[in-house]
Amino acid sequence: MEFNQESSHYELLDIAPDASPQEIRAAYMRARAAFQKDSLAIYSLMDSSEANEMIQKIETAYQILSHPERKREYDRSFLSRPNPTQAATLLDNPFESSSPIENIISIDRTPPMESSLDEQLLVAPALPETKIAENQIPEQKTIELEEWSGPQIKKARERLEYPIERLMEATRIRRSYLLAIEGEDFAKLPATVFVRGFLTQIARELKLPADGLIRSYLKRLEDWKVSQSSDSR
Amino acid sequence: MNAESSGPENPLSDWSLDPFARSTIPSARRVREIWAIGGGKGGVGKSLISSSLSMALARLNQKVIAIDLDLGGANLHTTLGVDFPQLSLGDFISGRTENLKDCVISTGNPNLSIISGAQDAVNAAQLSSSQKTRLFDAFHQLDADYLIFDLGAGTGVHTIDFFLHADVGIITMLPEPTSIENAYRFIKSAYFRKLRTCPQLESVYPLIELAMDGKNGKGIKTPSDLFREVNAANPEAGLRLREQIARFQPKLILNQIRAQTDVEVGLSVKSVSKRYFGIDIDYIGYLEYETNVWQAIRRKKPFMVEFPDSRIAASIDRITNYLYRKGSAIKPSAL
Q1: Tell me: domain A9-79, CATH 1.10.287.110, correct?
Q2: How many whole angstroms separate alpha carbon A110 and alpha carbon A114?
Q3: pTM beyond cutoff 0.80
Q4: What is the tens place of the pLDDT at every residue in B138-170?
Q5: What gap in Å lies between CA A123 and CA B290, rounded to an integer?
Q6: Is there a contact between B242 and A3 if contact means CB atoms under 8 Å apart?
Q7: CB B90 within 8 A of CB B103
Q8: How many CB pairs under 8 A join A and B?
Q9: Number of domains forming the structure of chain B
Q10: What ipTM describes this predicted complex?
Q11: What is the residue extent of each domain of chain A?
C-alpha cells in the first residue's frame, strides 16, 4: 500500500523481504492478473491509466526482485530505509502488543522514568568515550531551553565525537536522511511521522532531550512547509 | 418513544459517534461473536449464506440466532423454511414489544433460532440513534453464542452500521461487474463511515468528508490520497487513521462460481483492495454453482439439510470452521 510515496517493491507485491523466488513469481503473477486491462477486480475502482501505472510499478518491482544481483542491491538500500517493516507491520498486525506505533512516536509516550533518565544523561552523558568537563554542563543545560535546529543537532553530535557512520548504524537511518536532518534540507525528508521517528532515535542515541528537540525541530519543518505552500501559490 | 431508550443524550456516549461501542457493561454481553453478511447488491446470496452459516455453526453445538436486518425486505425466514412470524424485529423497534426475546422464533433445527426482519420500511427509516443503541444492547443480551446478521442490499447508513458493529464482517460477491461495483461501493461506504465515526480522528473529519465526496477539489480520490492529506494536516491523526484502517478487515465470499477464473477474481479483489484501500481482505472461500442445489433453494428447502454432501455445503462447513476457530483463538476470555 502506498501510504507514503516510497512504497517498497515488497509492499507492492505484498510479500515479505525473505520471500523465495517462487513466492516472488507467484505474487507477481497475482498482482498482474489483478490489475490487467480486463480484470473484473478493478472495475469501477480504477480507470485504465491508473491500472496501467500500477502494472508498470509491478513490472519494475518484479524486474528488480527476480534478478538476484539487482535484488541484493535493492535490499541493501531497502534495509537502511526508515522503518519499512514498522510501517508494514503497523498495517498488518495492529493488535500486536509491542505495537510499532510506540516506536515511531514514542516521544509522546515515553514513560516518565525514561525521560527523566534522559535529562540526567544530558548532564552527565553515559557514553564512556566522551569527556565532558564540569564547566560544560551549564552550557548544555541551556541547550535544552533553546530552539533545536539541524545545525545544533550536528553540533551536539560533534561535541560527543559521535561520527555519523556510527549514528547510521545505531539508528538504522539512511545517511542521506541524517544529513538532511542536520542540514535542514527539508525537501529531502520523508513524511513527518518518519522524521519524528528519526528524531526520537537520534535524541536517544545522542542523549539529547527528546521532547524539546522534536517539538522545536518539527516546528521548523512545519514553518518551512507553510512557506513552501505559500510560495507555490 | 420508549421510556428505556430515553435519558440524557451525551454526545460522547451517543452510539452514532461510535458504532463499535459495545454495551456499557462488558459483562452484560452474553453473545460471544456477531457475524454480519453484507455486500451491496441484492441477489448475491446474502440470506442464503447467512442461513447456511447459521446452520453450520449450530451444528458445532453453538447457540445461534440469525437476525434479519434487511429492514423492509426481510426474507431470511424463507431461506430457513420458516413462515413469517407473529412478532418481528419491527415490533421491537416500534415498541410494540418490550422484549427482543419475544421475537426469537425456533427454526426446528437444534440450537438455531431466528429473529425476522421488519416488514414495513417505515419502521426502518425511523430508526434513531437511541433506538439503535437500544437495539444493540438487546442483541448483546440475547441468549446465544453467535448472532448472524443478514444485512439488506445497498449502502444505507443502518446497513453499514450493522456491518461495522459486527465482530466479523463478511462481504458476499458474485464474479460479475455489477456485483463487484456494488461490493466496492459497500466497502468504500463502510470504510469512510468507520473513519468518520472514530472519535480520535475528529480533527480530520472535514478531510474525511471531502474524501467521501468523490469529486472534491483537493484531488482526494483514493484512501491513500486521504492518508497523505491527513498526514500533512496532522501526523498524529495520520497514525490513528492507519490504526483504524488496519482494524478494518472484512472477509470475502464469492458466490456462484462456475470456473477457475471466477475463483481467481476473489484473489484479485484482495490484491486490488490491499493496494487501493490499504485494507487486508480475508478471502475466506467461494461457493460453486450447483444446479440441483439452486433448485432446492427455489423450493424453499435449506440446502444444508437437503444436500449435506454437496460441494456448497462442504464449503460452508469449511468457512464456518475457519471463522469459528479464528474467533475462539482470539477471544478465549469472552466466555
Answers
A1: yes
A2: 6
A3: no
A4: 999 999 999 999 998 888 888 999 999 999 999
A5: 77
A6: yes
A7: no
A8: 94
A9: 1
A10: 0.74
A11: 9-79, 103-232
